[in-house]
Design brief:
Elements (H helix, E strand, L loop, with lengths): L8 H11 L5 E4 L3 H4 L7 E7 L2 H14 L19 E8 L3 E6 L3 H12 L6 E9 L9 H6 L3 E3 L1 H12 L3 E5 L3 E2 H6 L4 H24 L6 H9 L2 H14 L3 H15 L5 H18 L2 E5 L1 H7 L4 E6 L5 H12 L6 E5 L7 H7 L2 E4 L7 H16 L4 E2 L18 H12 L5 E10 L5 H8 L11 H7 L7 E6 L3 E2 H8 L16 H18 L2 E2 L1 H9 L6 E3 H17 L7 E2 L4 H10 L4 E5 L2 E5 L2 H30 L2 E3 H19 L8 H15 L3 E4 L5 E4 L6 H10 L3 H17 L6 H18 L10 H13 L3 E3 L5 E3 L2 H12 L2 H17 L1
Parallel strand pairs: 1-7, 2-3, 2-5, 9-15, 10-13, 10-14, 11-12, 11-13, 17-19
Antiparallel strand pairs: 3-4, 4-6, 5-7, 5-8, 14-15, 14-16, 18-21, 20-21, 22-24, 23-24, 25-26
């Protein structure tokens, strides 16, 4: 049996102090509360492999955290009892040593005691200790020297590991296991011993993989494996035949593609970036706030993870990988556009795990085959990956329509081999102030996108003197791919080991993209900049008295604290006055003082930029703002009428803003928001003669009406765009206009109205928003496309148009109607 380490205590503690003159640790879950330790039960620690240095690390961290110590007797009343630790395996062999699993002597004794005494229990705490964060290399000579399972001399190996990696030692305490629960399930002692050992070994293996990732192949080995795979060999033969070249030339071309794509993951590069980025974040931001990381740590032990963040900035690439590395998770392999494969920058990104892809695979089947096989290799081997389903950075602050190409590739890879489950983890990335804002505004106004250049590094360094506030990362609810496929395409398991493209793939991939996008929005952060932007942009001249602004912000805080958008939503902890001062320090708002007090306002240029930050959270305000529109334009309205209007418009809002609720849930959501707004005093409730509930607007002379009016304007521009398209369709007539022409007319009309009403927001006439609304009309059966490519519609469109009379003011409706008529007559 495997015995515990027993050294003279003075000698043990002297060695520990000497070792920690060099060793530096980072520790996870080392509090009694996190571990669920019960003070009335003994604690015993488990370490994977018999190691004096591991035990000394554990002893020191337990002392620091105030936990029971492993190098003290497990029974405090008996000084001769065994120390509170045991190991699962020990290196055996003279030269090439292997870790041999043996039954720990202490575990055998503890289980016997628990089995014989029904009142006894022992709390087992597995502790993972990793010396360094470097993934193992497959077929590596160094692995033979320093690997945990096959190594040259255990003590020499441990000395080298301590010397080389001691400054990056990770210690991970895991929640307690109850020996009583295991003993109660079986009376067979030998079986219980084997069961505990098996559970612990699986746990340690999963824990190691979740922190450092699977074994890596050398890049050359990986590329060779891709080229010689049956699918790539078949694609090479097809390329040679199609292009009338030799197989050698076609294979060389495939190898060039593979080298262009593949990452060259290097732990040394990650350590370098860790130092540089720690300095960079501290210079650029006043903090990087991370939320809901625990759900990622849990699922990483059982699933291959695909991170799916929203894309706001080029900084996203580095920020997410940095946070994961800092939190003790393996950084993912990140899909990056080929435009970032520049001198110096491209090499650094590739070493940090980036793999590069072209914007389109069209017309190049060999490149497509190599890329598909590379993605299959990453997924099937369990490597975490990351890509942006929006395709590119959002210039408007909205979550963009998903581009489903990468999702389709991942899904088809999973169909070929689904032995290891795959989970998508949506990630919301938010910034209080964005470095690229000036270029985004320029692009929205028609300027060409600036080409990326290595000189961008120096331009970034020049920005470090400015204040950019905080960066936020929130991890959303993971989406298990297998479970989703069971719901959407139950026959998917029949596709195992095939590479065909089933009929249901496109529909399922689209649904997956929409689910990820709505899950990203569900993990939104409502920060001070978002709050102030939403409020001031909803005022006619982008200005409010400070006290009025404080009341409006307080109203929003109360509404969302009582009824959060989702369980994963994060709301700023600042009060209203603190938010104003915070945003003022970021130089995003101005303060003017007169005899009546301070006025908070935005300049014209700042207001354009602030639409970006408003759009980050616009989906949170969609439902309460829609309800508010009804009460601004109507003195009194029944609950049934409110539900009817919202039910008609909700599919279009959901499609544009990626709202999280299904149409079948929306009546319940409306009821919750009506109750919330009544409690806030924004509306009042009564019953008519038939005892049916109705709601009333507040007195227009009250502060409550002003707050309701400001809240209503958050969604007005979206509703105006909807009504523009409907008005244009009805003016043109059924079967008289093509889709592209309608999109262009909508954009021109929006530009004209923005000038008339002083809407200095280029995203108001973003052509893609009109395109998406027209597509949603088609999806909902309101529009059809004729054989002559004309848009055909029936009386159903009138139902959508009628909602404008309840939601939009007479002035806005008349302006849209008049401009539409004039525009079509001129055409």
């Amino acid at each position: 049996m495997l015995k515990a380490i027993t050294l003279n205590r003075f000698f043990f503690h002297s060695l520990r102090k000497l070792m920690f003159s060099w060793v530096k640790t980072s520790v996870k879950n080392n509090s009694a509360e996190e571990l669920n330790i019960q003070s009335d039960k003994p604690v015993c620690y488990v370490i994977r492999n018999r190691s004096l240095s591991d035990l000394m690390v554990l002893e020191r961290e337990c002392i620091k955290a105030g936990l029971p110590r492993p190098y003290k007797p497990i029974d405090a009343t008996d000084p001769h009892s065994s120390n509170a630790h045991f190991f699962l395996s020990q290196d055996r062999g003279l030269i090439l040593q292997r870790a041999r699993s043996e039954t720990p002597e202490l575990l055998d004794k503890l289980l016997t005691k628990v089995e014989q005494n029904p009142e006894e229990d022992v709390q087992i705490i597995p502790v993972t200790i990793l010396w360094g964060r470097s993934p193992d290399k497959e077929q590596s000579a160094m692995k033979l020297l320093f690997d945990w399972n096959l190594s040259l001399g255990g003590r020499f190996r441990k000395f080298m590991a301590t010397l080389l990696h001691g400054r990056e030692t990770m210690v991970h305490f895991n929640p307690v296991m109850s020996l009583r629960e295991i003993a109660d399930n079986s009376d067979d002692h030998a079986r219980n011993v084997r069961k505990v050992g098996r559970i612990l070994r699986v746990h340690f293996r999963q824990q190691k993989t979740s922190v450092i990732g699977p074994d890596l192949s050398h890049r050359r080995t990986l590329v060779d494996g891709l080229i010689h795979s049956p699918k790539i060999q078949k694609a090479i033969a097809a390329e040679a035949a199609a292009q009338e070249v030799t197989l050698i030339e076609a294979e060389a071309k495939a190898r060039t593609y593979a080298n262009e794509i593949a990452s060259d993951y290097s732990i040394s590069a990650l350590r370098f970036l860790d130092i540089v980025l720690t300095w960079f974040w501290n210079k650029l931001y006043s903090g990087v706030k991370v939320n809901n990381i625990d759900i990622v740590k849990d699922i990483s032990q059982t699933h291959t993870i695909v991170y799916a963040p929203c894309h706001r900035s080029h900084i996203d690439y580095l920020l997410l990988s940095y946070v994961l590395y800092y939190e003790g998770l393996p950084p993912p392999h990140v899909a990056a556009g080929i435009n970032l494969n520049m001198p110096v920058i491209g090499t650094i990104l590739r070493k940090a795990g980036a793999f590069f892809m072209r914007r389109t695979f069209r017309g190049n089947p060999l490149y497509s085959a190599v890329f598909h096989e590379y993605m299959f290799t990453l997924t099937s081997k369990g490597f975490a990956t990351e890509y942006y389903i929006e395709g590119g950075r959002s210039r408007t602050g909205r979550t963009l329509q998903p581009k489903t190409g990468m999702l389709s590739i991942t899904l088809r890879s999973f169909l070929r081999d689904h032995r290891r489950p795959v989970a998508f983890v949506p990630v919301y990335v938010g910034y209080e102030k964005l470095m690229e804002m000036a270029s985004y505004v320029g692009e929205l106004r028609g300027k060409n996108k600036a080409k990326e250049s290595p000189l961008d590094i120096f331009r970034t360094l020049a920005e470090l003197k400015k204040e950019f506030g905080k960066a936020w990362l929130t991890f959303g609810e993971p989406i298990d791919l297998g479970t989703m496929l069971d719901n959407e395409a139950p026959q998917w398991r029949d596709m195992y080991h095939t590479d065909s493209k089933p009929d249901w793939l496109k529909k399922t991939t689209n649904k997956l993209g929409e689910k990820i996008a709505s899950s990203i929005n569900a993990a939104v952060v409502l920060n001070p900049v978002n709050m102030v932007a939403v409020t001031l942009l909803s005022t006619p001249r982008h200005a409010l008295g400070e006290e009025e602004l404080i009341l409006q912000l307080s109203c929003y805080l109360s509404l969302f604290e009582r009824l959060p958008y989702s369980d994963n939503t994060v709301i700023t902890s600042m009060d209203s006055r603190s938010m104003i001062h915070y945003v003022e320090n970021l130089e995003l708002i101005n303060r003017q003082t007169d005899a009546l007090g301070d006025v908070i306002s935005m300049t014209e240029d700042t207001a354009v930029a602030m639409t970006y930050y408003r759009n980050n959270v616009l989906h949170m305000f969609a439902i309460p703002s829609l309800i508010s529109c009804l009460f601004v334009n109507n003195n009194r309205i029944s609950r049934k009428e409110i539900e009817r209007v919202c039910y008609v418009l909700y599919p279009y809002l959901k499609a544009e803003l990626f709202l999280q609720w299904e149409l079948s849930e929306i009546r319940g959501v409306i009821a919750q928001w009506l109750d919330n707004m009544v409690e806030e005093g924004l509306i009042s409730i009564g019953n008519d003669d038939n005892d049916e509930p109705y709601y009333c607007q507040p007195d227009p002379a009250t502060a409550e009406y002003i707050r309701l009016s400001v809240l209503s304007r958050s969604i007005v521009q979206t509703l105006e765009r909807f009504y523009m398209v409907i008005s244009l369709l009805m003016r043109n007539g059924s079967g008289n206009i093509e889709r592209e022409a309608l999109e262009n007319q909508g954009r021109v009309l929006a530009q004209r109205l923005s000038i008339i009403h002083g809407l200095n927001a280029p995203e108001f006439f973003d052509k893609s928003l009109f395109r998406n609304f027209i597509e949603q009309l088609k999806t909902n059966g309101i529009l059809e496309i004729s054989l002559t490519n004309k848009l055909v519609f029936g009386d159903e469109i009138q139902q959508v148009a009628e909602q404008a009379h309840l939601l939009l003011t007479t002035e806005i409706r008349h302006s849209i109607h008049q401009t539409t008529s004039n525009g079509i007559e001129q055409d």
